[in-house]
């Protein structure tokens, strides 16, 4: 029995079934470019996975075929009311040539929760993971071998019914494309500067901030451009009159504060409906809690208390003024860990400490520990071989 939710109405229709997979190899298979030339999300592998869905028949035959354009009617609901969701996860090739995915079950589960929220069909997540593994195996030559590089998988689900009625779609398409990507940072880590502008809001109670919907991302481009004009790379998303911190750019947010006894409090906003339940967020919390409990201590870190709690700009400002702000960082699949060195707020800059490496102490340990797991340098259940 799968642990992932299946829409009750889906049970009389065909379920997503990886054993029905058909593979049609791309006769014009290409050659991956040298890793150094990769720009995030601009190069795609030879193959893609497509699975159609209809309200009548349920999930159709999964097919791996040449990466190619989709053909959709201009009246398709996706172009009008944006029933669209996506995921991002990475495959890594270690020096032994083994290819592994990082926590793909988490992405499949979140994809189903996003589908529920935007009235798209759900599926058995375990079947999707089987299909992802097969797709990666077929394009395994596209997984860069160089350390710091990976293959980014983009599972996507869209409503395709050709109809202008605003309602639940009767047709949908699940597809997965893949892009070889370089490390987010070149040789030198560059901490980012954030603009915290309370006039711009990413998510709100009762909204869709906790689902990975395409429609959550498009509206964030203008605020990012506005921040860039003022010299900041990303937005620090605030909420409410109290200016609660929520997320940073497209990533989850972590703030590290120093207690009087020298121990650290690592704060991240709770999953209150406005926060995306990030896989990297969950992984950082898991590693830090294992350190906190003494179950799996991490070297180079002091005593830590992990807090999923609300935090306001006033608290951040006070901590910075009192020398108690240790660091701020973002956590997400694309960049993994992204340190912050400056926050523009109400006409002033709050300076956030970073060490000579460009990181704060917790961010650096998190990046190193996660990378070792993702690369299969240490055995860990989060790193899942594609060929088993
Ligand atoms: C991530 O930080 O992993 C993202 O979701 C970024 C993606 C939208 C490119």
Automatic annotation (TrEMBL):
Pfam families named in the record: Aminotran_4
Catalytic activity annotation: L-isoleucine + 2-oxoglutarate = (S)-3-methyl-2-oxopentanoate + L-glutamate; L-valine + 2-oxoglutarate = 3-methyl-2-oxobutanoate + L-glutamate; L-leucine + 2-oxoglutarate = 4-methyl-2-oxopentanoate + L-glutamate
Top-level EC class: transferase
Its EC number(s): 2.6.1.42
Keywords: Amino-acid biosynthesis, Aminotransferase, Branched-chain amino acid biosynthesis, Pyridoxal phosphate, Transferase
Taxonomy, superkingdom: Eukaryota
Residue spans of biased composition, Polar residues class: 1-13
Keyword flag NAD: no
Region (Disordered): 1-35
Sites of N6-(pyridoxal phosphate)lysine modification: 212
Biological process terms in GO annotation: L-leucine biosynthetic process; L-valine biosynthetic process
Names of the cofactor(s): pyridoxal 5'-phosphate
Regions that span the bilayer: none
GO molecular function: branched-chain-amino-acid transaminase activity
One GO cellular component term: mitochondrion
Family: Belongs to the class-IV pyridoxal-phosphate-dependent aminotransferase family.
PANTHER family associated with the record: BRANCHED-CHAIN-AMINO-ACID AMINOTRANSFERASE, SUBGROUP IIII AMINOTRANSFERASE
Protein name (record): Branched-chain-amino-acid aminotransferase
Organism: Malassezia brasiliensis
